[in-house]
């Protein structure tokens, strides 16, 4: 299924552009800080409020009010945001796939009960519970992505359940059962590998959502804490100083928007391709 | 129909109860309390304060006391704002939050709807691609990025509008916040409506309507739009939730005195009752909106009433 996506995707020039841009951004985020002589929290006392581009001092994106380099900080913030995005997506993937596959595979009353619970959870303003969680239980890094992942698995569970319902009627699953394989062996060996394409698409669309949530929390001052930083935290800092140093807002905000844009565009194209592939 | 409505309402109540229960115990299990100030209070005074607010009772009893208060419409006293009831605080902030949210919702429906319909008329055209690229950008840029950028552009650089703050009756104060809050929803609704319009416009009965010689505007705006609105209708529930969470930051960015600021500040100060009150109001709004959407859905699509 996954290899079937490529020919469908290849014709979509917008999606290819998004993928290329995303790779560039990734490369920049990973390698960019090596190009700069500054560290995330190093303070250049000769150059606070430096307006970009400052070629002589090698502050390409300028500095903030403390003389910290905006280029390095924006990329470091991106590294943290992407890391949280991927880790939280992994959490949501784990819960969602297990939940959806079990509900779909066993079906019947269990399925009804499990999906009813998902319906009820859908109606809860979950983000508020996460905010409470973050405020009340300190702001530990792992809590950020576990909490975000724990609220983002509902879509995954629904989609995986639907897919599993269809898969379990297929001949190869019936054959596996006839040959005496147990339920969990079938789930693991027959159902799960065939879910991968769908899961990959949903995960691609989950990552930008999760990054949004993380930066929302960081913007409120509840997510990643100093001295660590993320795009949300940088946008928050930048917004406070935007009258004096608009670049401290524009660079992280721009990188955040560009990344989300590419991820959304790519996810859209993938789900389109998957849909067309299924027809 | 009334049975359908009643059933929907009955499933809404447990949701609210679940929300209140979760929030109540989550807060109480957290370390810290409302009287951990900078200076610690003498033990006798703290004990009498705790007794005054019934914090010395066992947790289940406090929980039941709170629920009992809710039944009488009492949200309890605020810990942080001495001498105020939570009901009074929320009543003071709610008009601001409600105007912000409802205006943003109206703007999102109008602009998002118009954009979606226009884009669907010539799929693949330059206009369609342009609008959809903008919409893609719109869903990628959150309110708390749009907000500061709007302030930077209109208040700092152009000096057309105030950067923030609020005076009762000065509606220009709401212009930028409403726009910042609505933009992501405008984009989401435009994308959704374009997709469902394209689907509907392919249907045979649209061809029939055109073959009968009806004017194109009538075919699009009456025959096609009505069924195409159903997915938008079901999106209104999530949209409400999105607007509410967005309003927490938008109120902060623009310094509006709504109820959003009570939430984060209240949780930091362990103002249990205030936070619960705000969660309850937000939850009730989301549940109410979902309920209205369900009702409207039942009205528009009779097949669902039996479900």
Please explain how this structure is put together:
The complex is a heterodimer of chains A (279) and B (307). By secondary structure, chain A is mainly α. Helix content of chain A is 74%, strand content 0%. Chain A has eleven helices and no strands. In chain A, helix 3 (70-106) packs across helix 6. Chain B has a domain at 94-269 and 296-306: MetI-like (MetI-like fold, Orthogonal Bundle). Chains A and B meet through helix 5, helix 9, helix 10 and helix 11 of A and helix 1, helix 5, helix 6, helix 9 and helix 10 of B. Chain B: Belongs to the binding-protein-dependent transport system permease family. OppBC subfamily. Chain B: Keywords: Cell membrane, Membrane, Transmembrane, Transmembrane helix, Transport. Chain B: It holds the Pfam family BPD_transp_1. Chain B: This is Oligopeptide ABC transporter permease OppB.
**Which structural class do the helices and strands of chain A define?**
mainly alpha
- Strand composition percent of chain B: under 5%
* CATH architecture title of one domain in chain B: Orthogonal Bundle
Q: Work out the radius of gyration of chain B.
A: 24 Å
Shape of chain A: elongated
Q: Mean pLDDT of chain B, as a whole number?
A: 84
Question: What distance lies between the first and last C-alpha atoms of chain A, to the nearest angstrom?
Answer: 13 Å
Write down how many β-strands of chain A occur, each being a DSSP E stretch of 2 or more residues. Answer: 0
Oligomer type: heterodimer
The span between the termini of chain B is 11 Å
Roughly what percent helix of chain A?
A: over 70%
Sketch the major β-sheet of chain A: none
* Integer average pLDDT of chain A: 83
Uncertain parts of chain B: none
Overall 3D shape of chain B: globular
Any idea what the radius of gyration of chain A is?
Answer: 22 Å
């Amino acid at each position: 299924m996954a290899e079937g996506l490529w020919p469908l995707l290849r014709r979509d020039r917008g999606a290819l552009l998004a993928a290329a841009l995303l790779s560039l951004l990734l490369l920049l985020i990973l390698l960019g800080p090596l190009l700069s002589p500054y560290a995330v929290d190093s303070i250049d006392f000769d150059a606070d409020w430096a307006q970009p581009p400052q070629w002589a001092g090698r502050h390409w994106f300028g500095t903030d009010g403390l003389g910290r380099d905006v280029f390095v900080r924006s990329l470091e913030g991106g590294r943290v945001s992407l890391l949280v995005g991927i880790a939280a997506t992994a959490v949501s993937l784990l819960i969602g796939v297990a939940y959806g596959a079990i509900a779909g595979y066993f079906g019947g009353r269990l399925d009804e009960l499990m999906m009813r619970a998902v319906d009820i959870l859908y109606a809860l303003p979950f983000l508020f519970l996460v905010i409470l969680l973050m405020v009340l239980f300190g702001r530990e890094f792992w809590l950020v992505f576990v909490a975000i992942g724990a609220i983002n698995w509902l879509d995954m569970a629904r989609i995986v359940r639907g897919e599993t319902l269809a898969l379990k009627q297929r001949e190869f699953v019936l054959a596996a059962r006839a040959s005496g394989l147990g339920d969990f062996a079938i789930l693991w060996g027959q159902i799960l590998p065939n879910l991968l394409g769908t899961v990959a698409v949903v995960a691609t669309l989950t990552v930008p959502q999760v990054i949004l949530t993380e930066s929302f929390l960081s913007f409120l001052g509840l997510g990643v804490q100093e001295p660590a930083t993320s795009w949300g935290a940088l946008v928050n800092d930048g917004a406070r100083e935007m009258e004096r140093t608009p670049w401290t807002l524009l660079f992280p905000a721009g990188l955040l928007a560009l990344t989300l844009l590419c991820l959304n565009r790519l996810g859209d194209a993938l789900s389109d391709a998957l849909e067309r592939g299924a027809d | 129909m009334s049975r359908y409505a009643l059933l929907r309402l009955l499933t809404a109540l447990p949701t609210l109860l679940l929300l209140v229960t979760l929030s109540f115990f989550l807060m109480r299990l957290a370390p810290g309390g409302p009287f951990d100030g900078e200076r610690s209070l003498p033990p006798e005074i703290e004990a009498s304060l705790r007794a005054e607010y019934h914090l010395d009772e066992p947790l289940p009893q406090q929980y039941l006391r709170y629920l009992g208060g809710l039944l009488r419409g009492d949200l309890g006293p605020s810990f942080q704002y001495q001498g105020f009831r939570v009901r009074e605080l929320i009543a003071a902030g709610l008009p601001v939050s409600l105007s912000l949210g409802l205006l943003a919702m109206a703007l999102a429906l109008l602009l998002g709807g118009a954009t979606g319909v226009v884009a669907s008329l010539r799929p693949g055209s330059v206009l369609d691609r342009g609008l959809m690229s903008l919409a893609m950008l719109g869903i990628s840029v959150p309110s708390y990025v749009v907000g500061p950028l709007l302030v930077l552009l209109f208040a700092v650089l152009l000096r057309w509008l105030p950067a923030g703050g609020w005076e009762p009756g000065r509606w220009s104060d709401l212009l930028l916040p409403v726009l910042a809050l609505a933009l992501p929803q405008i984009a989401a609704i435009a994308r959704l409506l374009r997709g469902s319009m394209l689907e509907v416009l392919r249907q045979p009965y649209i061809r029939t309507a055109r073959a009968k010689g009806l004017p194109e505007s009538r075919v699009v705006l009456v025959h096609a739009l009505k069924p195409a609105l159903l997915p938008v209708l079901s999106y209104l529930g999530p949209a409400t939730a999105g607007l509410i969470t967005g309003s927490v930051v938008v109120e902060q960015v623009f310094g509006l005195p709504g109820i959003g600021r009570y939430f984060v500040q209240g949780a930091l100060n362990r103002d249990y009752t205030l936070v619960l009150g705000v969660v309850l109001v937000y939850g009730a709004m989301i549940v109410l909106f979902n309920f209205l959407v369900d009702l409207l859905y039942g009205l528009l699509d009779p097949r669902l009433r039996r479900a």
